[in-house]
Amino acid sequence: MQTEIPVHEALRIVRQHAKPIAETERVPLAAARGRVLAEDLAALCDHPDVANTAVDGYAVRAADTEGASRENPAVLRLVGESPAGRPFSGALGPGEAVAVYTGSPLPEGADAVVAVEDTRREGERVLVFKPASAKDIRPRGDDFKKGEVLLKKGDLLTPGRIGLAAAMGHAELPVVRRPRVGILSTGDEVVAPGEPLPHGGVYDSNSYAVAALVEAAGGEPVTLGRARDALPELKDQLAAGGDLDLLLTSGGVSMGEYDLVRRLLAEEGEIYFWKILQRPGHPPIFGRYRDTLVFGLPGNPVSAMVVFFLYGRPMLFAMLGRTDPPYRRIRVRTGDFFKGAKGKVAFRRAALFYRPDGGFVAKSAGNQSSGAIRTMATGHALVAVPPDRNLNPGDEAWAIPFDPEALGAPGLPEQF
């Protein structure tokens, strides 16, 4: 068992033990958002499948409009129209024009389009005031061609990628099975929200916050409720989870008499590491109980969320085989004093503000106690304070936004 390990080593170990999930399933497009593609995806058609027009106007032969101007317009005979879904059935001859609309198939015989604002219609005649051009024609396969691989295994299915898959002709998509993640709170003092709060009790925020973080990372949260401070009950609750890819517990990982998760792993399981050189979130434990990976999160709500965000999220990304990074880093300038920690990286909750001259300023989100959960709601990011130093206003630092889609350079906090 390793203990008191640095941040980058803890990250390496959890990713090492996060085995990719082999099981896949097919889901309809409407249910694919947020899933991870299980195999490369090729287009089933050209897009567009025929040459079409990019503007409203008239399809013509370029030779018929050479030298056209407002003073000397080309005069063409209107022989039909080609709305999207009802293409013109004939062929365009010399001196003829066909009315087209954005997305209309280009009629046979046409090689140019003139925009409607550069024309005037007079009955069955079309007056053209400038030479027609091929620049407003989108050729067949202009966006992509049949057989072209446009989406890769491991891609997160965003709205844009789902739209692309639909345009490629796919009604269903192969996706990786979501990791099943058990979530278990421990402690006699923990009470479900909505119940009367006894003296010295605390509402169970960890289960709900961590479940939301699991879902945001692509996992399937399996809520196992609460285990009291008794080893037999803890074992019963763990057994109730069934077949899990990962078990998350909160509390019971420190050095006290009632820290039963640590005791259970030590006596009947395997411990890969215990304690990380960081604050908040110093005492997490990571190991295996029977056939299930177990990540014991600290009981303090901020510590539990920060530890899962920094290590649990990359674990799930690795299990899913995702191609995108689990979080991003941005360079910020501090607008407040951020206290460091002796021998540890301090992750301080911060609110980010965009500077008029470019870049972000990070200001403290408030109380930095590991029990002050409000700052996880009001803050936007974690500012990393290197070991054995403080950050003063005006210093530069790395910040990790909570929003995974926030702008910033891709990267993992392997060194601070």
Give the number of DSSP strands: 28
Identify the CATH class of the largest domain.
Answer: Alpha Beta
**Tally of individual domains:** 4
**The biggest beta sheet, please?**
7 strands, mixed
The CATH topology name of the largest domain reads Molybdenum Cofactor Biosythetic Enzyme, Chain A
- Gap between N and C termini: 24 Å
Q: What is the typical, i.e. mean, pLDDT?
A: 91
- Strand order across the biggest sheet? 1-19-21-22-18-14-17
Q: What's the architecture of the largest domain, going by CATH?
A: 3-Layer(aba) Sandwich
What is the strand content?
25-35%
Low-confidence stretches: none
Helical content, roughly? 10-25%
In DSSP terms (H or I, runs of 4 or more residues), the helix count works out at 7
The rough form would be described as: elongated
Structural class: alpha/beta
